[in-house]
Design a protein that fits this description.
Blueprint (H helix, E strand, L loop, with lengths): L3 E3 H7 L5 H9 L3 E3 L2 E2 L6 E3 L3 E3 L2 E2 L7 E6 L31 E2 L7 E8 L2 H8 L7 E7 L6 H8 L14 E4 L4 E6 L6 H8 L4 E9 L2 E2 L8 E3 L6
Parallel strand pairs: 9-13
Antiparallel strand pairs: 1-4, 2-3, 2-5, 5-6, 7-9, 7-15, 8-9, 10-12, 10-13, 11-12, 13-14
Amino acid sequence: MSAVMRVDKLLSRFGYCSRFVARVWCNNDRITLNGEPVKNFAQKVAIHDVRIDGEPIEFPDGILVALHKPVGYVCSHNDGEGARIYDLLPKHWLARDPKITSVGRLDKDTSGLLIVTDQTALVHRFTSPKHHVKKRYRVTLDRSPTDELAAQFASGIQLNNEPKPCLPASLTIDSALVVRVELQEGKYHQVRRMFAACGYHVVALHREAVGDWQLEDLAEGQWRALPLSSI
């Protein structure tokens, strides 16, 4: 991304307003550069020096945030599918170019960590099956797991309609009904399907980590910024 661009393009690129509205904002002295009002919407400015109503451009180098997805939200941009994860984030982020998106998805009935970004290269890298990004889940089952279940996961579960078994996954038992699973791939509804193949039903599914990123104590429905250097 260029560090210098036209004011109207900058405001549109970062989702603040349209190019037409940017002209109005300039006329109303809402845009300043080094403390001075920018009257010419076509003026080229340094992104990091611009202020909108006294505030700097939000995430000028790109968005990378951790989001605690609640159950009931979908990872879709389509507002016809119900509550979206993007409804939990600042509305103008969706008007940025490139648009924000989640790195992988969690289904509507799954909660936990999602990484949201406008860094398209990151999305491709972390969702590519070649990279085997680890993901850790807390799983609540309908009945107590047997001691053999961990060995089944470690040997690779064979899913219906899949030509090859899943890659080895680790499973540890936390309590009578709760286990933790770590995968290194991301097939469609994989965790639920793996347990179903072993005769279990997943009552609740919660993702705790993606790669080196942890959910930690992030509250449900909230987000926090991650350093781009962590990519």
